[in-house]
Amino acid sequence: MSKKWFILSVIILMYLPVSIDATVLHVAAPQLGVALGATGSELLWIIDIYSLVMAGMLLPMGALGDKIGFKRLAMLGATLFGLASLAAALAPSVAALITARAALAIGAAMILPATLKALRQTFSDERERSFALGIWVAVGTGGAAMGPLIGGLLLKHFYWGSVFLINIPIILTVLLVTAMLIPRQDYHREQTWTLSQALVLISGILLLVYAAKSGLRGSADWRITLLALLSGVGLLFWFVRHQLGSAKPMIDLRLLTSRVIAVGALMAMTAMVALIGFELLLTQELQFVVGKTPLESGMFLLPLMIASGVCGPFAGWLLSRWGLKPVAAAGMALCSLSLMGLALTDFTTQSYLAWGWMILMGFSVQASLLSSTTAILSSAPPEKAGAAGSIEGMAYELGAGLGVTIFGLMLSGSYAAAIVLPSSLPAALAERAGASIGEAVQVAGMLGQDQAEVLMAAARQAFTAAHSLVLASASVMLLVLAAVVWYIIPKRTVPLMVH
Fold it and tell me: Name one GO cellular component term (predicted).
């Protein structure tokens, strides 16, 4: 094996746990919530903190790599990722696990640009670089798609922390090989690096998410919720204003003045919201309602994983044959149709029908993501390709994080409205059991057998009704977006002139 292909194998090994960790907790969520006694809101924080923090840290970590060299950045990122994995596996509480997941995201935000820069510097031949980049993309999408299955396999034999412990031997191998065999890369000490803008962006996003979660749950002080909401809006307003007025912005938001680029970013976010949100929702349905194990839940998701992984070339062929506008609108419309079909499907008795809808969803999400990339890059001027790619990358990660948040909040609200609790249940326990099905399982463990069975029957019935309502609502929203896409995207896209 030549040296450059050996370097590619190291890049893949380093990037793989980063992509897997985005979704590996989906099948572990029910078990994790019971083990740590997490509320529904806390469980959402554990899962979505990874993508939300990573979205805000990707760009400044890329600039840091330019300043110190991407080999050093990769070593720092891998070290932090390994230590955070150990901390997450041994976390004694919800707060400790959320903190560890945030640290994991910072390490991942270092690793991702480091691997991409190393790939570009290693492969000078355009054809070889394209092939290597295709492998890198496949590892990213494939790792995220296979995360639930890997989590299910581990949870069949080990405790929930094993989904983090598997990162450690991989990271140790990567650190050793990188230190000994990967050459140093170019760096530019004069490169400016500002972390404050990223921290403002992340803080604004997290404050808005906190306000949404605490406001919907209703148990938090309304004054704290309002303060978080206003603070989040204020920080994001300052961030946007600063970016628009800066000579060297972290994100070139002026690109979003192009309606096509703005819709492309919205499509990327929406497609990821639908995919990640549905995965999380379905794994809870399969385990809490249908009674499947984590491994069986991961296996049930295989058609969705395979379809989203292998349909890319076909979606690309459709784009080249029919153009951006019809493929983008059709992708959103078919995703809407698949969600409505899944909303009307009984996962206990209609497995084959569910798999058929999931295959359609996997294809339509992939077509939407490919269309969003085409829309963004085809409408940006060549000198702004890097900035356009940054907007796309952030849209992906924000969509993944917001998918957990949006679907989780809709599910919690619908579940709380639908559940009919046993009248004999004490008020304190009734409040917990009515908040989420995970908390209902925790409460059932404190009750006698007969009372526990009555409670769980009510919880399962409410969750199924909430599940259907959330998917149907998401379907309607995607259908509206499909109409917007059809109306806004022109037959031919023209690059935007940004000065």
Answer: plasma membrane
Q: How many CB atoms lie within 10 A of CB 84?
A: 24
HSE-up (13 A, CA, CB side) for residue 443 = 26
Most confidently modeled range among 2-16, 65-79, 164-178, 423-437: 164-178
Distance CA 280, CA 163 (A): 16
Amino acid at site 448: G
DSSP secondary structure of 323-383: -HHHHHHHHHHHHHHHHHHHHT--TTT-HHHHHHHHHHHHHHHHHHHHHHHHHHHHHS-GG
Tokens 């919720």 belong to which residue? 225
Q: Could you give the CA distance from residue 373 to residue 259 in angstroms, rounded to a whole number? A: 14
Six token digits for residue 253: 């938001």
Pair 70, 118: CB distance under 8 Å: yes
Between CA 311 and CA 306 the distance in angstroms is: 8
Residue 363 has pLDDT above 80, yes or no: yes
Tokens of residue 97, six digits: 């696990």
**Which runs of E-coded beta strand occur in 350-485?**
none
> What distance, in Å, lies between the first and last C-alpha atoms of the chain?
46
74, two tokens? 């990769």
Exposure string over 371-399, b if 16+ CB within 10 A, otherwise e = bbbbbbbbbbeeebeebbebbbbbbbbbb
- Reading the block at residue 299, the tokens are 């296996």
pLDDT in tens, 453-490: 888 888 888 888 888 888 898 898 888 888 888 888 77
Quick one: tokens of 428?
């304190």
For 209-241, b where at least 16 C-beta lie within 10 A, e where not — what string? bbbbbbbbbeebeeeebeebbebbeebbeebbe
Compute the distance between CA of residue 267 and CA of residue 399 in angstroms, rounded to an integer: 9
- Predicted confidence (pLDDT) per residue in 76-98, tens digit: 999 999 999 999 888 888 889 89
CB 193 within 8 A of CB 250: no
Question: Percent of the chain having pLDDT more than 70?
Answer: 88
| Dist CA 209 CA 197 (whole Å) | 19
Report the C-alpha gap between 370 and 354 in whole angstroms: 24
The per-residue pLDDT of the chain, averaged, comes to 79
